[in-house]
Amino acid sequence: MAREVLHILNGACFDAPSIVGIVGELAERLDPERYRIHAWLLEGYGPLAEDLRAEGIEVKFFNWTRGARDPAGAWRFWRALREERDRFAIIHEHTLGRPLRLLVRAATPAKLASHLHVIWYKERGNHYRLVRKFNFGAHCVICTSRAAADTVRGARPRVVYPGIPIPPACHPKGERVSRPQVIGTAGRLAPVKGITFLLRAFRLLRAEFPEVRLEIAGEGPLREELQAEASALGLQDRVVFLGWRKDLLAVLQGWDIYVQPSLLEAFGVAALEAMATGLPLVGTAAGGLPELIADGETGLLVPPRDPEALAEAIRRLLLNPAQARDMGVAGRERAVKYFSVERMVAQIAEIYDDLLNPPSGRAPLKTRAQLSAGAPS
Q1: What is the domain-level CATH number for residue 319?
Q2: Alpha helix locations (H) across the chain?
Q3: How many CB atoms lie within 10 A of CB 154?
Q4: Contact present, 201 and 307 (Cβ < 8 Å)
Q5: pLDDT value at position 222?
Q6: What's the rounded Cα separation, in Å, for the pair 104 and 195?
Q7: How far is Cα 159 from Cα 370, in angstroms, rounded to an integer?
Q8: Burial annotation 29-57 (CB, 10 A radius, 16+ → b, else e)
Q9: DSSP classification of residue 359
Q10: Same domain for 196 and 151?
């Protein structure tokens, strides 16, 4: 008989597509005779909720947006969970909410897995600091990278890298597309993504590469400010804001270099998607990105907040297209080896098995030494 697994997400909006994607892949690929996936969205309906329903997931919506400062929302959530306390064998939460974990433990005997996808909190003035995630009762903590695992206190986390279906390569080795080159980036337009520093780096390249264009895919609170900065830098005719693109694969096929200029990043799923299509990457040595990008092999790493270093790395790839193509091929091979969706689903299935059957022989929680030994370098 299949065991019921409830995934709890803050929402299903465009600022968290990777989390929605993980839940959808689990629903599609886990053995339905063993596990059946459900989803509860705390912040109500989001545009990506239909993606979950398309995978056959039963979705329930709440209006609990302010954690402990919203006792009415907390009560609605607790009451709903209490009414189904014996339905779910595992609750898999994807939030940073300490009150949520305490309510889950109080309302149900289900095993609780807490999944950490971010490693930063926003502070005043667009400054950021690392999360210090305390366990507070979860039976298992899952992290999207070793960098995220290093922020956890009170538990020995298990690292499961996000996985994606490996798409066709954009530009197979040896193929050269005859057109102006395009640099691209994708993600939420928020300060932590570092797009401002990419614009400044692109200005430094303007004179040497007058035909190169920059495309930015994504939406977020910083869009108008970034558009204004592009104009102030004289780049309004060279920078294109594409908005949110559900067809990111098609967009990636028109790019030559992918740039991830993040100030902090737990992992970087958009960068992985670009790498899997065969694009060379330029990224910052921030958070989990060095676990994804092998510096000098699949791309180039530079310090965050450094437009000069970012410009020089992009310049190096623009001037050396053969090296860029070789990096793209190596990156695709790395994605296949370490970051496939099949690998991710198998690892999460193991965690579910361990939670429900601890004597199975696999340790429910791994040590940091074990994490490092089994992770890509």
Answers
A1: 3.40.50.2000
A2: 17-29, 49-54, 71-83, 98-107, 146-149, 195-205, 223-232, 248-252, 269-276, 289-292, 307-319, 321-338, 341-356, 368-374
A3: 12
A4: yes
A5: 93
A6: 38
A7: 10
A8: bbeeeebbbbbbbbbeebebbebbeebeb
A9: G
A10: no
Q: Say whether both 46 and 76 belong to one domain.
A: yes
Between 264 and 200, residue with greater pLDDT: 200
pLDDT at residue 133, as a whole number: 63
One domain, residues 317 and 221? yes
Phi and psi (nearest 5°) for 49? -60, -35
- Whole-prediction pTM: 0.89
Residues 49 and 70 reside in one and the same domain: yes
- Residue 44: left if φ>0, alpha if ψ -120 to 50, beta else—which one? left
Q: Residue 302: is it exposed, middle or buried by C-beta count within 10 angstroms (0-12/13-18/19+)?
A: buried
User: How many Cβ atoms from other residues are within 10 Å of residue 367's Cβ?
Assistant: 10
Instruction: Tell me the C-alpha distance between 332 and 336, whole Å.
Output: 6
257: Cβ contacts below 8 Å, ≥ 6 apart: 181, 182, 183, 184, 279, 280, 281, 282, 314, 317, 318, 324
Separation between Cα atoms, residue 183 and residue 126, nearest integer Å: 26
Residues 330 and 346 in one domain: no
pLDDT tens across 177-229, in order?
Answer: 567 899 999 999 999 999 999 999 999 999 999 999 999 999 999 999 999 99
On whether the CB atoms of residues 195 and 217 are closer than 8 A, the answer is no
Looking at the structure of the chain, the number of domains it has is 2
- Please give the Cα distance from 14 to 12 (Å, whole number): 7
% of the chain beyond a pLDDT of 90: 68
Identify whether residues 43 and 157 lie together within a single domain: yes
Measured at the CA of 3, the angle between CA 8 and CA 65, to 5 degrees, comes to 10
